[in-house]
């Protein structure tokens, strides 16, 4: 089911991002970096304007977020997950019309 | 201070074959013209799981969606998607090497716009009097009298580490001891925010080393790497 507000889209994205972070944490030597990186990008996503307004979301953006979540959930390799901890929020922000 | 070609060991010969692959040049040329958003598209696709285009078209509505008009920008997005999918389809180990080679080629292309093709070299060592030569060559160098530059290139922020920062800073310091100027920089095809997080965990000196992240790649052609003292 797709989200239909900015708030819901970000919430769904953050849930997927938490799953991605868990996979990345499997690389024990990078545990601290993984969590610092995850925290930094979570903070950025929380700053998206309009997320508190709860306005309706363009269906194309809604679909983009869903597709991004699907892509992230396909990643099983923890090394790739670390790389995607940076990529995922950048793609999400672009879809939402933001500059990463 | 003088420059020298790196030794042609087995690894270098194999990697040279990847560097010479036409796909590397094509992708790098597209990226040199690309917007930051298009560079994020390439980054995602080249290290993604999905290798069918529709998923990526849906994921990037501001670049490839139905509301984006036909024209040079859309055409470049489509070409970048195609080239990036070709990289992704090479298999995990090979595409990792392709990604690295593409970032190096992109760096060389952007630098050549500022200093000309003849001034840009690849896989070079830098020698200093009385200093043991570093094992690893620099990915890209600009070799001009009185205005030399050395660059290492990384696909992602995770590639930033104390070893590479030390090597760049040491080279800059040794050049200064010889009254030479050597500007040094680390080019990272990743977001500045991610680079900052990674740098917080490093202890090597980096005040004299510029970090050129994905958002600021065009600085390479516009006015130098942005290191202290750069124009």
Describe what this molecule looks like in 3D.
The complex is a heterodimer of chains A (100) and B (231). Chain A is mostly helical and 100 residues long. Chain A has one domain. Helices cover 69% and strands 0% of the residues of chain A. Chain A contains four helices and no strands. In chain A, helix 2 runs parallel beside helix 4. Chain A starts with 5 loop residues before the first helix and ends in a 5-residue tail after the last helix. The mean pLDDT of chain A is 91. Chain B is an alpha/beta fold and 231 residues long. Chain B has two domains: 132 residues, Trna Endonuclease, Chain: A, domain 1, CATH 3.40.1350.10; 71 residues, no CATH class. Chain B is built from ten helices and six strands, in the order βαααααααβββαβαβα. A six-stranded mixed beta sheet of chain B has the order 1-2-3-4-5-6. Chain B is elongated. The two termini of chain B are 22 Å apart. The C terminus of chain B is likely disordered. At the A-B interface, helix 2, helix 3 and helix 4 of A face helix 3, helix 4, helix 5 and helix 9 of B.
